[in-house]
Amino acid sequence: MSLDIEFEIIDPVDQSVRCVFKRNENNLLELRLTIVAILNEECNLGGLDILFKPLVEESFLYNWLKKLGMNHLVESQNFEIVQITAKDVIDKELKTSWLELKRVSETAIG
Q1: 3-class secondary structure per residue, 74-99
Q2: Which tens digits make up the pLDDT trace of 30-81?
Q3: Contacts for 33-39 with beta carbons within 8 Å, 24 or more apart?
Q4: What is the pLDDT of residue 110?
Q5: Coil, strand or helix: which one is 33?
Q6: Longest CA pairwise span in the chain (Å)
Q7: What 3-state DSSP class applies to 73?
Q8: Rounded Cα gap, residues 76 and 99, in angstroms
Q9: Which of 11, 12, 67, 101 is deepest in the core (most CB within 10 A)?
Q10: What is the DSSP code (8-state) at residue 66?
């Protein structure tokens, strides 16, 4: 995937951390990771420690979300919002296939 992809953490919604991937100001993909997944021990995504820190570039969760999205941008033909929940992750690995992850309707934003 090209280096001109921008990755940005945006305001949380529906008890989910959100990030968006853009090219030339056009949204390509939005990932939503539920707070429950972050707190779930089996997911091993950082728990309370990560929730009380800013999601900065040095953080594990920032890099995990960025890598996950970049790896799957090719599979996203049109803009979509992909929701990742606790049942989708075990020990920092996505266990649900990308195509089976829940898609959120754009009309359900916010």
Answers
A1: HHCCCCEEEEECHHHEECCEECCCHH
A2: 999 999 999 999 999 988 887 777 666 678 888 999 999 999 988 777 899 9
A3: 33/61, 33/65, 33/84, 34/83, 34/84, 34/85, 34/86, 36/85, 36/86, 37/84, 37/85, 37/86, 37/88, 37/89
A4: 47
A5: strand
A6: 38
A7: helix
A8: 9
A9: 101
A10: H
